[in-house]
Amino acid sequence: MNKQVVPYSDSALGKKEQVEEMFDNIASRYDLMNSVLSLGIYNLWKKKLVRELKTENPKMILDVATGTADIAIALLKLNPEKIIGADISKEMIAYGNKKIAKHHLEQKIELQVADAENLPFEQNKFDAVSVAYGVRNFGQLEKGLSEMLRVLKPGGKVVILEFSNPRSKIIKWFFDFYFHRICPLLGSLIAGDKTAYTYLPLSVKVFPDGKQFENILQSIGFVKTKCTTLSFGIATLYSGYKS
After folding, report:
1. Torsions phi, psi of 219, nearest 5?
2. What pairing do the DSSP bridges indicate for beta strands 152-163 and 126-132?
3. 62 closest CA partner among 161, 154, 148, 142
């Protein structure tokens, strides 16, 4: 079980409720912050996530913790019949729907306010499930992963993109300095929420990344799992299948 880090340490709410509140607070600046904080590398990682699903030719895709639908829109390159994006934050979904309407994508992408740990979908529904920077925020990690497995069709694939801790001492020093010193400052200046971007590096630090997370995927029931480090280990792309 991974150690719990919450966004607002002085709040009486549980992690799930705090995460919902946090994302509601930063929704309007979320896309901008992703680009700024990753120095543009986020777009490369996003493309790798999409390519990981290319050979599967999925027709029905679920994007968990979809946020403002950035990943859901990127997944359109796979030419699926339908993409459903689910997120616990009503404000993130609202901004996502604005983007979808702006680009006239309503026939392809549908967004829903939903709890990742209690997905409102029948089992064996989706050919693929994706999640980017979301599993780290689950209140109960194993429960959220189990839900993704449940709604996957047999043979379906999960792809998870998440921040991780670099193993190189030099890269880790720069990573820690940027994440712990620069990110909260930028979060305060751009998103108006220093706390949210103080939580970010702390949640990454305690998250069971690499082989440890891959082992959790296997314990849930995923098979043929794989983890690929990106950008010197700053992020990791995980994948697995439902047997």
Report:
1. -65, -30
2. parallel
3. 148
Encoded amino acid at 6, one letter: V
- For the entire predicted model, the pTM comes to 0.93
Q: Please, what are the averages of pLDDT over each run of 10 residues along the chain (243 residues)?
A: 76 92 89 78 94 98 97 98 98 96 97 98 98 95 98 98 92 89 85 84 92 98 97 95 98
193: its two tokens: 């929420």
87: left (phi over 0), alpha (psi -120 to 50) or beta: beta
Instruction: Give the bridge partners for 241, in sequence order.
Output: 157, 223
Domains of the chain: 15-167+207-242 (3.40.50.150)
Q: 189 has which bridge partners?
A: none
Q: Are 72 and 85 in contact (CB under 8 A)?
A: yes
How far is the CA of 11 from the CAs of 18, 71, 138, 206, 213, in angstroms? 8, 30, 17, 20, 28
What tokens appear for 230 in the block? 């990106």
Q: Which amino acid is at 173?
A: W
